[in-house]
Protein backbone atom coordinates (compact mmCIF):
# COMPACT_ATOMS: atom_id res chain seq x y z
CA UNK A 1 0.00 0.00 0.00
CA UNK A 2 1.35 3.40 -1.04
CA UNK A 3 0.98 6.05 1.68
CA UNK A 4 1.60 9.79 1.73
CA UNK A 5 2.12 10.99 5.30
CA UNK A 6 1.32 14.61 6.11
CA UNK A 7 2.39 16.30 9.35
CA UNK A 8 4.63 18.97 10.80
CA UNK A 9 5.20 19.17 14.60
CA UNK A 10 6.49 16.72 17.19
CA UNK A 11 2.95 15.42 17.79
CA UNK A 12 3.15 13.72 14.38
CA UNK A 13 6.49 11.98 14.96
CA UNK A 14 5.25 8.84 16.81
CA UNK A 15 2.72 8.18 14.04
CA UNK A 16 5.30 8.40 11.27
CA UNK A 17 7.76 6.33 13.28
CA UNK A 18 5.27 3.53 13.89
CA UNK A 19 4.35 3.29 10.20
CA UNK A 20 8.03 3.11 9.27
CA UNK A 21 8.68 0.52 12.00
CA UNK A 22 5.96 -1.66 10.48
CA UNK A 23 7.51 -1.22 7.04
CA UNK A 24 4.65 0.58 5.35
CA UNK A 25 5.54 2.10 2.01
CA UNK A 26 5.71 5.86 2.65
CA UNK A 27 6.09 7.24 -0.88
CA UNK A 28 6.30 10.86 0.32
CA UNK A 29 6.07 13.03 3.41
CA UNK A 30 4.36 16.40 3.17
CA UNK A 31 5.24 19.01 5.77
CA UNK A 32 5.41 22.77 6.31
CA UNK A 33 8.07 24.86 4.56
CA UNK A 34 11.23 25.55 6.57
CA UNK A 35 10.83 28.51 8.93
CA UNK A 36 13.36 31.02 10.31
CA UNK A 37 14.29 30.33 13.92
CA UNK A 38 16.61 31.70 16.59
CA UNK A 39 18.57 34.92 16.73
CA UNK A 40 20.12 34.32 13.34
CA UNK A 41 16.71 33.57 11.81
CA UNK A 42 18.17 30.63 9.94
CA UNK A 43 15.72 28.40 8.10
CA UNK A 44 14.98 25.29 10.13
CA UNK A 45 13.13 22.13 9.05
CA UNK A 46 10.05 20.83 10.84
CA UNK A 47 10.45 17.83 13.17
CA UNK A 48 8.63 15.68 10.60
CA UNK A 49 10.98 16.76 7.82
CA UNK A 50 14.02 15.89 9.92
CA UNK A 51 12.66 12.39 10.56
CA UNK A 52 11.72 11.92 6.91
CA UNK A 53 15.17 12.91 5.70
CA UNK A 54 16.77 10.58 8.24
CA UNK A 55 14.86 7.75 6.55
CA UNK A 56 15.61 8.97 3.01
CA UNK A 57 11.97 9.69 2.29
CA UNK A 58 10.81 12.10 -0.37
CA UNK A 59 9.74 15.41 1.23
CA UNK A 60 7.14 17.81 -0.18
CA UNK A 61 6.81 21.33 1.27
CA UNK A 62 4.06 23.16 -0.60
CA UNK A 63 3.21 26.76 0.22
CA UNK A 64 -0.21 26.35 -1.40
CA UNK A 65 -2.00 23.02 -1.10
CA UNK A 66 -4.23 23.88 -4.08
CA UNK A 67 -1.32 24.77 -6.36
CA UNK A 68 -1.56 22.79 -9.62
CA UNK A 69 2.01 21.53 -9.38
CA UNK A 70 1.41 20.12 -5.89
CA UNK A 71 -1.89 18.51 -6.89
CA UNK A 72 -0.14 17.03 -9.91
CA UNK A 73 2.72 15.68 -7.81
CA UNK A 74 0.35 14.01 -5.35
CA UNK A 75 -1.65 12.51 -8.20
CA UNK A 76 1.47 11.18 -9.94
CA UNK A 77 2.58 9.49 -6.71
CA UNK A 78 -0.58 7.36 -6.94
CA UNK A 79 -1.15 7.03 -3.20
CA UNK A 80 -3.57 4.43 -1.93
CA UNK A 81 -3.97 6.37 1.31
CA UNK A 82 -3.12 9.76 2.81
CA UNK A 83 -2.47 9.84 6.56
CA UNK A 84 -2.68 13.28 8.20
CA UNK A 85 -1.37 14.07 11.69
CA UNK A 86 -1.14 17.72 12.82
CA UNK A 87 -0.97 19.29 9.40
CA UNK A 88 -3.10 21.82 7.54
CA UNK A 89 -6.65 21.64 6.23
CA UNK A 90 -6.52 19.61 3.02
CA UNK A 91 -8.52 20.78 0.00
CA UNK A 92 -10.78 18.36 -1.85
CA UNK A 93 -8.29 18.34 -4.74
CA UNK A 94 -5.87 16.50 -2.44
CA UNK A 95 -7.86 14.36 -0.01
CA UNK A 96 -9.87 12.75 -2.81
CA UNK A 97 -6.80 11.55 -4.74
CA UNK A 98 -6.15 8.23 -2.90
CA UNK A 99 -8.41 5.36 -3.90
CA UNK A 100 -8.72 4.27 -0.24
CA UNK A 101 -9.31 7.79 1.03
CA UNK A 102 -7.57 10.11 3.47
CA UNK A 103 -7.81 10.15 7.25
CA UNK A 104 -6.72 12.47 10.04
CA UNK A 105 -5.69 11.92 13.67
CA UNK A 106 -7.38 14.36 16.08
CA UNK A 107 -6.48 14.78 19.76
CA UNK A 108 -9.98 14.53 21.19
CA UNK A 109 -12.96 12.23 21.28
CA UNK A 110 -14.78 13.68 18.29
CA UNK A 111 -17.21 15.30 17.92
CA UNK A 112 -16.03 16.90 21.17
CA UNK A 113 -13.43 19.66 20.80
CA UNK A 114 -13.27 20.17 17.06
CA UNK A 115 -10.62 22.72 16.18
CA UNK A 116 -6.98 23.70 16.64
CA UNK A 117 -6.65 23.34 20.44
CA UNK A 118 -8.48 20.22 21.65
CA UNK A 119 -5.92 19.30 24.31
CA UNK A 120 -5.89 22.79 25.82
CA UNK A 121 -9.66 23.17 25.97
CA UNK A 122 -10.21 19.74 27.49
CA UNK A 123 -7.97 20.74 30.40
CA UNK A 124 -9.33 24.28 30.71
CA UNK A 125 -12.83 22.83 31.00
CA UNK A 126 -11.73 20.37 33.67
CA UNK A 127 -12.44 17.22 31.68
CA UNK A 128 -11.53 13.97 33.41
CA UNK A 129 -11.26 11.98 30.20
CA UNK A 130 -10.16 12.60 26.64
CA UNK A 131 -8.59 10.61 23.84
CA UNK A 132 -7.78 10.47 20.15
CA UNK A 133 -9.84 9.90 17.03
CA UNK A 134 -9.06 8.95 13.46
CA UNK A 135 -11.64 10.07 10.93
CA UNK A 136 -12.08 10.23 7.17
CA UNK A 137 -11.53 13.65 5.66
CA UNK A 138 -14.28 15.72 4.13
CA UNK A 139 -14.51 19.41 3.32
CA UNK A 140 -15.97 20.59 6.64
CA UNK A 141 -13.17 20.47 9.21
CA UNK A 142 -13.17 17.64 11.81
CA UNK A 143 -16.60 16.34 10.78
CA UNK A 144 -15.79 13.19 8.82
CA UNK A 145 -16.85 9.67 9.76
CA UNK A 146 -14.94 8.16 12.67
CA UNK A 147 -12.66 5.19 12.07
CA UNK A 148 -11.29 4.48 15.55
CA UNK A 149 -11.06 6.09 18.98
CA UNK A 150 -9.05 5.48 22.14
CA UNK A 151 -9.71 6.99 25.58
CA UNK A 152 -7.45 8.09 28.44
CA UNK A 153 -8.02 9.48 31.92
CA UNK A 154 -6.68 12.96 32.65
CA UNK A 155 -4.70 13.57 35.84
CA UNK A 156 -6.10 16.62 37.74
CA UNK A 157 -2.67 18.29 37.73
CA UNK A 158 -1.59 17.23 34.21
CA UNK A 159 -0.49 20.03 31.88
CA UNK A 160 -1.24 20.37 28.19
CA UNK A 161 2.38 19.56 27.39
CA UNK A 162 2.26 16.32 29.36
CA UNK A 163 -1.09 15.26 27.91
CA UNK A 164 0.17 16.18 24.42
CA UNK A 165 2.99 13.65 24.72
CA UNK A 166 0.70 10.89 25.98
CA UNK A 167 -1.83 11.48 23.22
CA UNK A 168 0.89 11.57 20.55
CA UNK A 169 1.97 8.05 21.57
CA UNK A 170 -1.59 6.79 21.92
CA UNK A 171 -2.46 8.38 18.58
CA UNK A 172 0.35 6.51 16.86
CA UNK A 173 -1.19 3.20 17.93
CA UNK A 174 -4.60 4.28 16.63
CA UNK A 175 -3.08 5.47 13.33
CA UNK A 176 -1.46 2.06 12.87
CA UNK A 177 -4.72 0.26 13.66
CA UNK A 178 -6.61 2.53 11.26
CA UNK A 179 -4.17 1.86 8.43
CA UNK A 180 -4.46 -1.88 9.06
CA UNK A 181 -8.28 -1.88 8.99
CA UNK A 182 -8.29 0.14 5.76
CA UNK A 183 -5.68 -2.17 4.25
CA UNK A 184 -7.73 -5.24 5.18
CA UNK A 185 -10.97 -3.68 3.97
CA UNK A 186 -12.52 -4.05 7.43
CA UNK A 187 -12.94 -0.36 8.32
CA UNK A 188 -16.44 0.57 9.49
CA UNK A 189 -16.65 4.38 9.60
CA UNK A 190 -19.32 5.81 11.89
CA UNK A 191 -20.94 9.23 11.41
CA UNK A 192 -20.36 11.79 14.15
CA UNK A 193 -23.26 12.80 16.38
CA UNK A 194 -23.64 16.52 15.68
CA UNK A 195 -25.64 17.03 18.88
CA UNK A 196 -22.46 16.30 20.89
CA UNK A 197 -20.18 18.63 18.94
CA UNK A 198 -18.13 21.32 20.68
CA UNK A 199 -15.39 23.65 19.49
CA UNK A 200 -11.74 24.13 20.49
CA UNK A 201 -10.49 27.30 18.80
CA UNK A 202 -6.84 28.31 18.81
CA UNK A 203 -5.68 30.13 21.96
CA UNK A 204 -3.45 33.19 21.66
CA UNK A 205 -1.08 34.84 24.14
CA UNK A 206 -3.42 37.78 24.62
CA UNK A 207 -6.15 35.35 25.73
CA UNK A 208 -4.00 33.94 28.53
CA UNK A 209 -4.08 36.66 31.18
CA UNK A 210 -5.27 35.15 34.46
CA UNK A 211 -8.59 36.40 35.80
CA UNK A 212 -8.06 36.16 39.55
CA UNK A 213 -11.79 36.69 40.17
CA UNK A 214 -12.42 33.16 38.96
CA UNK A 215 -12.24 30.22 41.37
CA UNK A 216 -8.96 28.55 42.29
CA UNK A 217 -10.03 25.41 40.45
CA UNK A 218 -10.93 27.32 37.28
CA UNK A 219 -7.63 29.18 37.29
CA UNK A 220 -5.69 25.98 38.00
CA UNK A 221 -7.34 24.27 35.03
CA UNK A 222 -6.65 27.31 32.85
CA UNK A 223 -2.96 27.43 33.84
CA UNK A 224 -2.37 23.75 33.12
CA UNK A 225 -4.44 23.96 29.94
CA UNK A 226 -2.10 26.52 28.36
CA UNK A 227 1.16 25.21 29.85
CA UNK A 228 3.79 25.34 28.45
CA UNK A 229 2.38 27.39 25.55
CA UNK A 230 1.00 29.93 25.00
CA UNK A 231 1.20 30.07 28.83
CA UNK A 232 -0.95 31.82 31.44
CA UNK A 233 0.36 35.16 32.67
CA UNK A 234 -0.24 37.88 35.21
CA UNK A 235 1.51 41.08 36.26
CA UNK A 236 3.15 42.27 39.47
CA UNK A 237 4.53 45.79 39.88
CA UNK A 238 4.46 46.25 36.11
CA UNK A 239 6.37 43.02 35.41
CA UNK A 240 4.90 40.07 33.53
CA UNK A 241 5.00 36.70 35.29
CA UNK A 242 4.32 33.56 33.24
CA UNK A 243 2.67 30.85 35.37
CA UNK A 244 3.33 27.24 34.34
CA UNK A 245 2.11 25.17 37.26
CA UNK A 246 -0.20 25.70 40.23
CA UNK A 247 -1.94 23.73 42.95
CA UNK A 248 -5.34 24.25 44.56
CA UNK A 249 -4.80 24.28 48.34
CA UNK A 250 -7.98 25.84 49.69
CA UNK A 251 -10.95 25.07 47.46
CA UNK A 252 -13.54 26.69 49.77
CA UNK A 253 -14.57 30.34 49.57
CA UNK A 254 -12.79 32.93 51.69
CA UNK A 255 -14.83 35.46 53.64
CA UNK A 256 -13.08 38.36 51.94
CA UNK A 257 -12.45 36.71 48.58
CA UNK A 258 -14.41 39.36 46.69
CA UNK A 259 -12.21 42.09 48.14
CA UNK A 260 -8.82 40.75 47.16
CA UNK A 261 -8.71 38.52 44.07
CA UNK A 262 -5.07 38.27 43.07
CA UNK A 263 -3.91 39.27 46.54
CA UNK A 264 -0.87 37.46 47.94
CA UNK A 265 -2.03 36.04 51.28
CA UNK A 266 0.95 33.91 52.27
CA UNK A 267 4.66 33.82 51.43
CA UNK A 268 7.21 31.32 52.72
CA UNK A 269 10.58 30.23 51.35
CA UNK A 270 8.92 27.66 49.08
CA UNK A 271 5.31 28.85 48.97
CA UNK A 272 3.26 31.66 47.48
CA UNK A 273 -0.47 31.55 48.08
CA UNK A 274 -2.76 33.81 46.05
CA UNK A 275 -6.40 34.56 46.82
CA UNK A 276 -8.89 33.92 44.02
CA UNK A 277 -12.60 34.53 43.70
CA UNK A 278 -13.19 31.22 45.47
CA UNK A 279 -10.33 29.60 47.37
CA UNK A 280 -6.58 30.06 47.21
CA UNK A 281 -4.01 28.97 44.67
CA UNK A 282 -0.39 27.95 45.24
CA UNK A 283 2.04 28.97 42.50
CA UNK A 284 4.46 26.10 41.84
CA UNK A 285 6.41 27.08 38.72
CA UNK A 286 6.74 30.42 36.95
CA UNK A 287 8.96 32.74 34.94
CA UNK A 288 9.72 36.44 35.20
CA UNK A 289 10.07 38.28 31.90
CA UNK A 290 13.65 38.10 30.72
CA UNK A 291 14.46 35.20 33.06
CA UNK A 292 14.26 31.45 32.80
CA UNK A 293 11.46 29.21 34.06
CA UNK A 294 11.92 28.03 37.66
CA UNK A 295 10.27 26.57 40.74
CA UNK A 296 8.80 28.89 43.35
CA UNK A 297 11.58 28.41 45.94
CA UNK A 298 14.30 29.41 43.48
CA UNK A 299 12.16 32.26 42.16
CA UNK A 300 11.70 33.76 45.64
CA UNK A 301 15.44 33.82 46.25
CA UNK A 302 15.80 36.44 43.54
CA UNK A 303 12.40 38.18 43.48
CA UNK A 304 10.60 40.19 46.16
CA UNK A 305 7.01 39.14 46.68
CA UNK A 306 5.20 40.01 49.93
CA UNK A 307 1.88 39.41 51.65
CA UNK A 308 -0.51 42.11 50.54
CA UNK A 309 0.95 42.42 47.05
CA UNK A 310 -1.51 42.10 44.21
CA UNK A 311 -1.24 40.08 41.01
CA UNK A 312 -3.30 41.55 38.20
Q: How is this structure best described in words?
A:
This protein has 312 residues and is of the alpha/beta class. It has 2 domains: 2-196, 3-Layer(aba) Sandwich (Rossmann fold), CATH 3.40.50.170; 205-300, Methionyl-tRNA Fmet Formyltransferase, Chain A, domain 2 (Roll), CATH 3.10.25. It is built from 8 helices and 15 strands. It has helices at residues 13-21, 47-54, 68-77, 92-95, 118-124, 160-184, 216-225, 296-300; strands at 2-7, 25-30, 35-37, 42-44, 59-60, 81-85, 102-106, 129-136, 146-153, 232-236, 239-250, 264-268, 271-275, 280-288, 294-295. β12 and β13 (271-275) form a beta hairpin. α5 (118-124) runs antiparallel to α7. The radius of gyration is 23 Å and the shape is elongated.
Please state how the strands of the largest beta sheet are arranged side by side. Answer: 5-2-1-6-7-8-9
Q: From the 3D coordinates, which CATH architecture of the largest domain would you assign? A: 3-Layer(aba) Sandwich
CA-based gyration radius = 23 Å
* Total tally of structural domains: 2
The backbone outline, from C-alpha atoms, is elongated
How much β-strand is present in the residues? 25-35%
Class from helix and strand fractions: alpha/beta
Task: Point out poorly predicted stretches.
Answer: 252-258
Element pattern in H and E: EHEEEHEHEHEHEEHHEEEEEEH
The total of helices stands at 8
CATH structural class of the largest domain: Alpha Beta
Instruction: Say what the CATH topology of the largest domain is.
Output: Rossmann fold
Cα-to-Cα separation, first versus last residue:
57 Å
The largest sheet, given as strand count, sense and whether it forms a barrel, is: 7 strands, mixed
How many runs of DSSP E, i.e. beta strands? 15
Residues in helix, %: 25-40%
Mean pLDDT: 95
Q: CATH homologous superfamily of the largest domain - what is it?
A: Formyl transferase, N-terminal domain
Amino acid sequence: MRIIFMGTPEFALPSLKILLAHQYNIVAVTTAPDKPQGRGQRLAPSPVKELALAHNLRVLQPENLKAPDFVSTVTQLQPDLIVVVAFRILPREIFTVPKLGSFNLHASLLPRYRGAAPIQWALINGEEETGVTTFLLQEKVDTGSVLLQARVRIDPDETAGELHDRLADLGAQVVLQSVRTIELGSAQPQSQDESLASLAPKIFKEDCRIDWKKSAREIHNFVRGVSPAPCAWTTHSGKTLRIYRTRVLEPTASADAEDMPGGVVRVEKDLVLVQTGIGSLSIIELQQEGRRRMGIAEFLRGYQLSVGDRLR
